[in-house]
Specification:
The protein is about 60% helix and about 15% strand. With about 70 residues, the chain is an alpha+beta fold. A hairpin with a 2-residue loop joins strand 1 and strand 2. Helix 1 packs across helix 2.
């Protein structure tokens, strides 16, 4: 694994997330993202968003580092 390939993979992932946000995909507001509000306390956990980004990242990294 060379540092150049890692930087390219991270850059591609950042670009894809940026394009998704610009296209209006509701990252961070998907069904399954948890938001609990009690008085002045708010807990937010984007479970589904993290799962989708993990799958996309895994696919991209497998494409770059497959031997």
């Amino acid at each position: 694994m060379t540092p150049g390939k890692v930087l390219v993979a991270v850059g591609v992932l950042v670009i894809l997330v940026g394009v998704a946000v610009q296209l209006g995909l509701p990252l961070g507001r998907l069904p399954g993202d948890v938001k609990l509000t009690r008085g002045n306390f708010t807990f937010y956990s984007p479970l589904v968003t993290m799962l989708i980004l993990s799958v996309v990242g895994t696919v991209l990294l497998n494409m770059f580092f497959r031997r």
